[in-house]
Amino acid sequence: TKTQVAIIGAGPSGLLLGQLLTKAGIDNIILERKSGDYVLSRIRAGVLEQGTADLIREAGAGARMDKEGIIHTGTDFSFQGEHHHLDLEKYSGGKHVIVYGQTEVTRDLMEEREKAGGVTVYEADNVKLHDIDSDNPYVTYHHNDEPFRIDCDYIAGCDGFHGVTRKSIPHDKLVEYEKVYPFGWLGLMSDTPPVHDELVYCAHERGFALCSMRSETRSRYYLQVPDTDTIDNWDEDKFWDELKRRIPPEMAERLVTGPALEMSIAPLRSYVCETMQYGKVFLLGDAAHIVPPTGAKGLNLAASDVETAFRLFVKIYNEGRTDLIPRYQEICLARVWKAVRFSWWMTMFLHRFESAGRFDFRVQQAEFDYFIHSEAGKTTIAENYVGLPFEALE
Ligand code: FAD
Ligand code: DHB
Hints:
The chain is an alpha+beta fold. Helix content is 37%, strand content 27%. Strand 1, helix 1 (12-23) and strand 2 (28-31) form a beta-alpha-beta unit.
């Protein structure tokens, strides 16, 4: 088989890029290791920036998001149970975010791809990249134990942090940065009404907690847990009890609890691979960078990489602008590092560090007090949270 762009991974990055390329008449094939149902069973992000939502609309997959997504013009914080509201719209010059699950974004993109007749090979095993710095790169894989080969012009690595694409770049060419945090997030999804109509980011001496949602009837909650904890250390009752201790008392009183639809622990890390392009290979989304979830930036950063890669492919195929290829990582990294910084800062701002002493706790308290009461502080949180602008490709 021959295609123009071979896309590895059918998460949000791969599906969004595939859909935009198909709409622009650029041929592409997606190879995904797992089944479609497995991809849809992973519960992850919940907050979309306006730029991300616009790109989903451009890909023709925004109808259900615009109908069912919940516009949030503010977000809330609490420190030791004291509740504060941040007017995102006011402090970001009129912007908002949309609460709409990654699962739903993925489902909508999958449906549109099927309608458009786009090819996605699920359960593609043993994907390998070949001759990536030549003019004739190709990808091989197995499906139902049968070997296949795809010849292509470019390869888009949308295969997440553990994917094969980044590992195919010669190791001595990779420039990487990493920071691991000594805790994870334990998430719980339940069909219960959200405790508040906005998200609540709670700093507490027992650890961070987040109250989020997927709809008016479905809640998503997270607790900071030590990185030594496994899911066996927890059950639903223990989760709800601990959540009640960390959120404002008036919310704990009205919290509706219920059976967990899902419970899982995600470790927190910051990671950047600055080599986002090598030969004919591009890295997008989690394949190139990981942020701790605190700033709700992971999926949104993936979308901004897709935006840049898509504009680049259009210029390459329509105008022969291969000279713009080195601009890809320049443009992406400027935005990536700012989101990495914000996610790191939100993590340090709101989490409890075992290593911190009484002094550090007081400083954290003062920092919270300062940011939440200062116009400058509120502006800096709001403009980062709603998303920094996308840079044009030129
Ligand atoms: P992925 O979603 O990881 O998709 C990669 C795909 O590639 C997968 O389907 C995988 O199966 C496939 N793949 C892997 N290896 C191979 C291979 N060898 N061959 C073929 N296919 C392969 N982000 C936000 O913006 N806001 C949030 O609120 C938020 N909350 C989060 C909460 C949690 C608990 C977690 C874990 C993450 C959260 N994120 C959030 C981050 C967000 O989910 C990720 O940034 C996003 O999934 C990245 O999309 P992606 O398509 O780049 O990678
Ligand atoms: C969700 C996850 C986040 O990391 C975040 O900052 C906000 C919301 C969520 O899954 O709903």
